[in-house]
Each structure stands twice: as structure tokens, then as C-alpha cells.
Amino acid sequence: MFTLFFRAMLLYAAMILTMRVLGKRQLGEFQPYEFALTILLADIISGPIGSVSTPLLYGLLPVAAVIVVHGVISIACLKSDRVRAIVSGKPTLVVNRGAINRAALDELCISLSDLLEGLRSAGFLDPAEVGTAVVEANGTISAFQTSTSRAPKAEEMNLDPGYEGLPMILIMDGKVQAWNLSQTHRDERWLDGLLGARGLTAKAVYLASLDTQGRMSVQLMDGSTQRFQALEPGEVRW
Description:
Layout: H1 2-22, H2 32-50, H3 57-79, H4 81-88, E1 92-96, E2 99-100, H5 102-108, H6 112-121, E3 130-135, E4 141-145, E5 168-172, E6 175-176, H7 178-183, H8 188-196, E7 205-210, E8 215-220, E9 225-229
Antiparallel strand pairs: 1-2, 1-3, 3-4, 5-6, 5-7, 7-8, 8-9
Helix pairs in contact: 1-2, 1-3, 2-3, 3-4
């Protein structure tokens, strides 16, 4: 029984390592060859886990082979558009200038109901608002509004909203995120002083983030929230 437990742990660790080697795309939307690879990996590892009589190498060696093959295919796709088109396919335009391309839907074996479902997933209740829609190589639908129904851009209104970047999470569940805080070129003394001026401590904070306009948003453990200016926009350095 201990042997079975040990083998399961080892193969599970090998699976995690394999997914890390294959990259983060494996955890997102699959390309066709990546989907096939994931199913194959699960089947390869399940055999040695369930049967003690199967040598452990019979599970580990095929996993190593799959990693090599995946690496070769990935490099080939990066180097050659033709190989990428063969292995992964190409995006297909299914809505153009507000009109649904029936021939493209038939070619992809996608019904009108499937298309409408995909548009709803993309945030469109009314298909008349869709100017362009594309079925990507991984099967997802990317949809874009018509120019007349979308919100105007800031540049079209001659507005400058300023720099907008990734907010820094400074506190999570009462714990100061030291690396994130260092990216703001501030230290814990500054943070403690900022919170102390409002009668708060880091341990009382569930989540605190600092955006690129210098505004800090704080949610306390009791669910209440505060928002205040912690830095001047010109002091933001990330």
C-alpha cells in the first residue's frame, strides 16, 4: 500500500513538473495539439498509478517523450506560419461588417445557436451590436462592437486620462506584500504611517491596492472599504 501511495505521489509530482515545463498556455485555452497532449498525459500516468506491477519508468519515460515532441512542435509553430496553420488551424471571420458569414459557420460546423451563445459569452446580448467576430484557432469566439455602438475613446474626446498600469497589491489578508511594496519605492514604515493616520493597522486590512494614479483602495476584515489618495500621480514609479 505504501508503494502505491509513493508511486502516486511521484507521478503526480512528475505531472506538475511537466505542466510547468510545457508553459502557462496549458492552463489557459488549448490549441488542438495541446488538448491532445493533455489527454495523452493523463492516460499515460494513470496506468502506473493504478498498477503496481507496471514499472514506474513505463510512466515517466513516455512523459519525457511527450515533452520532447511538444517542444519540437512548439518550436516549429514559432518558426513557421505554415506549420502553425496545419497544427493549430487559423482564425476564421464569422461576422464581418455586422453580417454573419453563413459559409464560414458551415465550414466550422458551428450552428447559429452556437454562435449566439459564443457572442453572449463575449458580452453581447444583441448580435446586432457585433461588427466583427472571429472564431480563434483554439475555438473561442472574439467579438467586437460596431463603431457606432461602442463607447467613445478618450482620444476621440480630446481627454488625457493619464498613465494606467497594473495596481500594486500591498496587503493581502493582513499580510504586507513586501516585494510589491518595494516596487512603489516605499517601505513598511511609510505604509504603517499611512494606515495609522486613519486608525488602521495592516492586520486589520483584508486587501489593499495602490493604483497608478496614487489612489489606495482598502477593504477591512469587517467588509468596510476606504479609498484615499496615498501618492501624487507624479510620484508613481512603476
